[in-house]
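Researcher: Sequence recovery benchmark, item below. Answer with residues only.
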């Protein structure tokens, strides 16, 4: 990267036993509601592709509904409540808020509608399984990659996502844990949130980064860490628009030193497979780790990494 901000790592999420019986029923009568945090980002579209793939394999109905924005808690609560009233066979849910969705999930349990939580955690124990990346590990891997790219010295900023989101909070925690092991790296800001939507995150990220601008227009920091897709895209746009990152198009031309990626297709697939197994009385695990990987310019063209960066959603 040719700008003064010579080393940049942003973490993007595009591009991640309970053995009890649920409700019985034939495959033709099983309906599964899959409720994401949002529906616009490629991450959630990948989740949907995996969920629908599992639905076809298992011969069950997949109903995909969720809020457009990832900060619309009321909308997601209403979606869960609606599916509980409708009496679906099961719910696969990525909670927008680890507390706000507790009540609706408890109501589902009382109505004998099992719930699998995926992507982001939920307080309480009214669900049958949690299918997700180890987000603390993901944050740690991102921090380690950033430290490597910075040769163990310099100043970094953590731009947080939004309060109440278990998954991103754990990534942020993992990143800070990794930074504590780096005596030569100073975290100059770690408590500022950019928000859930790209446009809002753009404005907040620009304001935060502008406060570190030097008299010559360059930035007085050496690295950045963002914990999800929207905050990453917003921050990249800020760097582009202010001339801090040159002409940035993606990982290939050096804009990023690393991406910590999940496997959202796998997550959606296993979420549905797990809830259907529970409904059919088969044993399931209480926690299913869907994996996490670090993509770098050196390994991005490897088949496994390329598939994570560019999943075939039509397959």
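Model:
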């Amino acid at each position: 990267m040719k700008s003064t901000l010579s080393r940049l790592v942003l973490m993007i999420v595009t591009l991640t036993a309970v053995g009890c019986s649920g409700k019985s029923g034939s495959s033709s009568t099983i309906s599964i509601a899959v409720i994401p945090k949002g529906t616009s980002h490629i991450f959630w579209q990948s989740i949907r592709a995996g969920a629908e793939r599992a639905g076809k394999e298992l011969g069950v109905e997949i109903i995909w509904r969720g809020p457009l924005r990832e900060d619309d808690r009321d909308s997601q609560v209403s979606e869960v409540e609606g599916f509980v009233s409708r009496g679906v066979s099961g719910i696969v849910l990525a909670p927008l808020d680890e507390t706000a969705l507790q009540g609706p999930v408890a109501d589902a349990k009382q109505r004998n509608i099992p719930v699998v939580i995926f992507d982001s955690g939920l307080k309480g124990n009214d669900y049958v399984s949690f299918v997700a990346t180890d987000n603390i590990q993901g944050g740690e891997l991102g921090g380690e990659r950033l430290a490597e790219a910075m040769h163990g010295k310099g100043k970094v900023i953590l731009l947080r996502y939004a309060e109440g989101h278990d998954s991103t909070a754990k990534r942020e925690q993992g990143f800070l844990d990794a930074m504590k092991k780096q005596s030569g790296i100073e975290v100059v800001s770690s408590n500022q949130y950019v928000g859930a939507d790209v446009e809002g995150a753009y404005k907040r990220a620009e304001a935060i980064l502008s406060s570190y601008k030097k008299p010559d227009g360059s930035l007085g920091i050496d690295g950045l860490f963002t914990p999800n897709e929207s905050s990453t895209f917003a921050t990249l746009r800020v760097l582009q628009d202010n001339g801090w990152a040159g002409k940035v198009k993606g990982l290939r031309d050096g804009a990023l030193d690393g991406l910590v990626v999940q496997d959202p297709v796998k997550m959606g697939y296993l979420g549905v497979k797990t809830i259907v197994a529970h409904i059919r009385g088969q044993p399931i695990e209480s926690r299913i780790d869907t994996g996490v990987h670090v993509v770098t310019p050196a390994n991005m063209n490897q088949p496994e990494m390329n598939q994570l960066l560019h999943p075939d959603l039509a397959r």
